[in-house]
Amino acid sequence: GDSVTQMEGPVTLSEEAFLTINCTYTATGYPSLFWYVQYPGEGLQLLLKATKADDKGSNKGFEATYRKETTSFHLEKGSVQVSDSAVYFCALTDYNQGGKLIFGQGTELSVKP
Amino acid sequence: NAGVTQTPKFQVLKTGQSMTLQCAQDMNHEYMSWYRQDPGMGLRLIHYSVGAGITDQGEVPNGYNVSRSTTEDFPLRLLSAAPSQTSVYFCASSTTTVLGTGGGDGYTFGSGTRLTVV
């Protein structure tokens, strides 16, 4: 079945460092891809999404490009802030498989001043 | 504010007790779902519904029941709580696609219910 694999955390960075969180997926169809963020004690918020190959999703300085050839959707940010400390989840929805949202295991990011 | 409302936020149960986790949304979303979040395992789908009167099982449905009598509400029932059901539970909703599936414009999540079974 469909699945999502993320790099393991926790990831610890200094403020203004470059961030990459790797995400790869397996899907039989043509999924839409998402990054969700969970701040401490809160629910999940949609960070960005991409619905087809070569689409780039972006929001709040974060970017991810839908790479069908490498089945990847890596999350990047050029300069992280302390306020970016959170858990980041990569996910996919395959509309041909009922539209269920399938998550990776999450990557915890900690940004130090 | 519009969104997904979950109650209660925290709950402690004894093994064998039953309870209902409430989920309500006011966005007229057809699709609603329940997930559980456990450390190192991401979120796993328990049950979902594509509209009133229609429910189906997700990845980990055992020990849980759902019903969908209205578009707005999607309660999750624990029939006989077990320590393995200690988790954080999230409800999520979305519009449906032209195929009648979830995730039309992405999902909106509630703030979660932290459940401990002792």
How is the secondary structure organized here?
The complex is a heterodimer of chains A (113) and B (118).
Chain A lengths: L2 E4 L4 E4 L4 E3 L1 E4 L5 E7 L5 E7 L5 E4 L2 E4 L9 E3 L8 E8 L7 E3 L3 E6 L1
Parallel strand pairs in A: 2-12
Antiparallel strand pairs in A: 1-4, 3-9, 5-6, 5-10, 7-8, 8-9, 10-11, 10-12
Chain B lengths: L3 E4 L2 E4 L5 E7 L5 E7 L5 E9 L2 E4 L6 E3 L9 E3 L8 E8 L13 E2 L3 E5 L1
Parallel strand pairs in B: 2-11
Antiparallel strand pairs in B: 1-3, 3-8, 4-5, 4-9, 5-6, 7-8, 9-10, 9-11
Biggest sheet overview of chain B: 7 strands, mixed
Shape of chain A: globular
Q: What is the radius of gyration of chain A?
A: 14 Å
Care to count the β-strands of chain B? 11
Tell me the helix content of chain A.
under 10%
The succession of helices and strands of chain A, N to C, reads EEEEEEEEEEEE
Mean pLDDT over all positions of chain A: 92
- Total helices of chain B: the number is 0
Q: Give me the count of strands of chain A.
A: 12
| Oligomeric grouping of the chains | heterodimer
What's the order of the H and E elements of chain B?
Answer: EEEEEEEEEEE
Q: Provide the β-strand percentage band of chain B.
A: over 45%
Portion of residues in beta strands of chain A equals over 45%
Describe the structure.
The complex is a heterodimer of chains A (113) and B (118). In chain A, strands 2, 5, 6, 10, 11 and 12 form a 6-stranded mixed β-sheet that branches. A 4-stranded antiparallel β-sheet of chain A has the order 3-9-8-7, with no helix packed on it. In chain A, strands 1-4 form a two-stranded antiparallel sheet. Helices cover 0% and strands 50% of the residues of chain A. Chain A contains no helices and 12 strands. Chain A is an all-beta fold and 113 residues long. In chain A, strand 7 and strand 8 form a beta hairpin. Chain A starts with a strand and ends with a strand. The mean pLDDT of chain A is 92. Chain A is globular, with a radius of gyration of 14 Å. Chain A has strands at residues 3-6, 11-14, 19-21, 23-26, 32-38, 44-50, 56-59, 62-65, 75-77, 86-93, 101-103, 107-112. Chain B has 118 residues and is mainly beta. In chain B, 0% of the residues lie in helices and 47% in strands. Chain B has strands at residues 4-7, 10-13, 19-25, 31-37, 43-51, 54-57, 64-66, 76-78, 87-94, 108-109, 113-117. In chain B, the strands form 2 sheets. In chain B, strands 2, 4, 5, 6, 9, 10 and 11 form a 7-stranded mixed β-sheet that branches. In chain B, strands 1-3-8-7 form a 4-stranded antiparallel β-sheet, with no helix packed on it. Chain B is globular, with a radius of gyration of 14 Å. The A-B interface holds A 4, 32, 34, 36, 42-46, 49, 89, 93, 95-96, 98-106 and B 4, 31, 33, 35, 40-45, 48, 56, 58, 90, 92, 94, 96-97, 99, 101-104, 106-112.
